């Protein structure tokens, strides 16, 4: 606490001062400035100012005096001391009542006291307090710097700050994942991750502050579960924000009283220290992440020519290749749509996507650890590439159990995110990783084309689909398929009548007209009309088995090609 009104009243020069209102506040109200002021007040009185006045201009006009005192109250001054004897002989009861009602400390001074003497002695006290506060702040800065130089962890730094501020501290990365927390953290931190996923923490939009202090302007206040959370961005020299520092206050704490010059200085030193810590950590993690991503990319692209060279690099990055792996490729399908639905700032989209991928990766790592399996992950070209350890005795069950666990956890954390999965197969040797990757990519493409988004397909279950894909890639077959299907596609464009869906359903029910009509919600005669139109457009007969086979094969191959 800085200089208080009571400290000024204890000065020898103030021994004859009489407090006529707000005496119970003299040990609470802080003083940051001392000045002499007469009417009009306007904007010349600052918050926490100890104001001296002769009330010249008020005379015996009680209304004018009341207005003057009210203006001082509106300026949030700490106290008003009135010199009696020439312009005002006693303070009117009406004015004293206004002071009582508005928590203003009102003081009577004898006329003989010179304001300049009071200001001089008060400023000596104020300067002494400021000097001590400055020295105290410098000590915090030095100790924080020592913690960084000795490579202390963030938890130790947060506990040190807790000792300075006396309220719990939480430090997160840029997407809100807790990196460290001090002791005595509140119970609601159990739900912190949920608030981070919803975009509540950290808060992205700045709030306007009346203070001109650049540090206070950076502070965001967020009210959650009876807590007032102060959020400070950790800004590096490059301008990046690798994380945030949060102070957890009870909601009843008044911010103006909490954010004293000392606290603001401590917070400023704190974010600088945490920025240094993140700079060091991020440099290490970025290098590690680049190595991991590069290694998985080299594995899946078949760049390693020998098992020894791949194994040597795997040991460097901390992977064990002497295990059976299967490649899974996951494609998050609706991130852009989810982002737009929330009407967030388009400038923040890339950062938001990175946070979503981070959470998905976390769940994948957690699922692998829960099943006691090794895993390698990278995110490239909008796809998650996952190499998961499997049991050779039951490959399908290993993958199914793993993905089931991942999806259960993602439904809880990110219920609206849709992911499609392609599952490769196990292949021995260093080139087996490339083959498994390519097979998983094929399975993913077939999954999207055949089943739609949000499903999973195993490569070993795509034999017929792969045959159809190969057929579509054959130029002669492609011409036959196009010639067969094109009239139906054109008819749909002109008449908005999907004959391809009609014949597909007809084939599905093995030529049963009644079942087909029921499935398509059509009258029997309407279906028969469509079937005749299909024969007319394609030149094929639906009662000829060869023609029907060609039409069915062409449709399935065309869909796969599409």
Please tell me about this protein's structure:
By secondary structure, the chain is an alpha/beta fold. It is built from 20 helices and 15 strands. The strands form three sheets. A five-stranded mixed sheet has the order 1-5-4-3-2. Strand 4 (79-84), helix 3 and strand 5 form a beta-alpha-beta unit.
Number of helices: 20
Question: Low-confidence parts, pLDDT < 50 over ≥5 residues?
Answer: none
The percent range for strand residues is: 5-15%
Topology, number of strands: 15
Rg over alpha carbons: 37 Å
Q: Identify the strand order in the major beta sheet.
A: 1-5-4-3-2
Helix amount: 40-55%
Largest sheet: 5 strands, mixed
Instruction: Note the gap between the termini.
Output: 72 Å
Give me some keywords for this one.
alpha/beta; five-stranded mixed β-sheet; five-stranded antiparallel β-sheet; single chain; 562 residues
Short description:
This protein has 562 residues and is of the alpha/beta class. The chain is built from 20 helices and 15 strands. A hairpin with an 8-residue loop joins strand 9 and strand 10 (243-250).
Task: Please render the helix and strand layout as text.
Layout: H1 5-9, E1 18-21, E2 33-36, E3 49-53, H2 62-74, E4 79-84, H3 93-101, E5 105-110, H4 115-149, H5 154-165, E6 169-173, E7 178-181, H6 192-197, H7 214-218, E8 220-224, E9 227-234, E10 243-250, H8 255-258, H9 261-301, H10 307-317, E11 325-332, H11 335-341, H12 349-370, E12 375-380, E13 383-389, H13 395-413, E14 419-423, H14 432-451, E15 456-458, H15 463-473, H16 475-495, H17 499-508, H18 513-519, H19 524-538, H20 545-561
Parallel strand pairs: 2-3, 3-4, 4-5, 14-15
Antiparallel strand pairs: 1-5, 6-7, 6-10, 8-9, 9-10, 11-13, 11-14, 12-13
């Amino acid at each position: 606490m800085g200089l208080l009104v009571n400290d000024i009243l204890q000065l020898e020069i103030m021994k004859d001062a009489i407090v006529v209102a707000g005496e119970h506040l003299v040990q609470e109200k802080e003083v940051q400035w001392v000045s002499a002021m007469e009417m009009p007040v306007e904007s010349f009185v600052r918050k926490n100012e100890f104001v001296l006045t002769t009330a010249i201009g008020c005379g015996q006009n009680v209304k004018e005096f009341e207005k003057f005192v009210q203006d001082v109250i509106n300026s949030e001054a700490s106290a008003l001391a009135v010199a009696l004897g020439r312009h005002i002989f006693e303070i009117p009861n009406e004015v004293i009542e206004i002071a009582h009602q508005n928590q203003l400390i009102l003081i009577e001074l004898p006329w003989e006291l010179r304001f300049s003497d009071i200001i001089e002695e008060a400023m000596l006290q104020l300067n002494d307090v400021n000097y001590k506060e400055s020295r105290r702040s410098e000590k915090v800065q030095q100790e924080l710097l020592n913690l960084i130089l000795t490579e202390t962890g963030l938890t130790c730094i947060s506990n040190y700050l807790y000792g300075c501020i006396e309220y719990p501290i939480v430090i997160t990365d840029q997407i809100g994942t807790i990196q460290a927390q001090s002791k005595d953290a509140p119970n609601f931190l159990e739900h912190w991750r949920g608030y981070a996923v919803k975009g509540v923490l950290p808060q992205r939009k700045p709030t306007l502050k009346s203070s001109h202090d650049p540090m206070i302007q950076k502070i965001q206040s967020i009210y959650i579960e009876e807590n007032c959370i102060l959020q400070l961005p950790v800004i590096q020299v490059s301008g990046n924000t690798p994380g945030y520092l949060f102070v957890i206050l009870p909601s009843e704490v008044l911010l103006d009283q909490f954010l004293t010059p000392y606290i603001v200085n401590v917070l400023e030193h704190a974010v600088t220290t945490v920025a240094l810590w993140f700079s060091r950590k991020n440099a290490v993690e970025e290098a590690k992440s680049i190595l991991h991503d590069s290694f998985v990319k080299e594995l899946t692209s078949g760049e390693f020519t020998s098992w020894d060279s791949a194994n040597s690099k795997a040991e460097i990055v901390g992977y064990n290749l002497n295990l059976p792996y299967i490649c899974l490729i996951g494609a998050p399908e609706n991130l852009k749509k989810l982002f737009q639905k929330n009407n967030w700032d388009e400038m923040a989209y890339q950062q938001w996507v990175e946070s979503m991928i981070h959470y998905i990766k976390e769940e994948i790592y957690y699922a692998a650890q829960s099943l006691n399996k090794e895993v390698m992950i990278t995110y490239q070209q909008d796809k998650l590439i996952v190499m998961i350890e499997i049991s050779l005795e039951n490959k399908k069950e290993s993958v199914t159990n793993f993905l089931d666990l991942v999806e259960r956890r993602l439904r809880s954390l990110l219920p609206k995110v849709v992911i499609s999965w392609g599952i490769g197969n196990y292949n021995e040797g260093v080139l087996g990783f490339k083959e498994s990757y390519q097979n998983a990519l094929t399975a993913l493409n077939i999954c999207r084309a055949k089943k739609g988004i949000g499903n999973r397909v195993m490569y070993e279950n795509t034999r017929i689909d792969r045959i159809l894909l190969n057929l579509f890639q054959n130029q002669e077959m492609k011409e036959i398929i196009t010639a067969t299907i094109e009239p139906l596609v054109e008819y749909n464009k002109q008449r908005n009548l999907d004959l391809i869906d009609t014949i597909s359903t007809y084939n599905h029910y093995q030529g049963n007209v009644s079942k087909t009509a029921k499935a398509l919600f059509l009258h029997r005669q309407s279906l028969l009309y469509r079937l005749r139109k299909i024969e007319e457009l394609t030149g094929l007969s639906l009662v000829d088995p060869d023609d029907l086979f060609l039409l069915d094969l062409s449709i399935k191959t065309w869909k796969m090609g599409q």
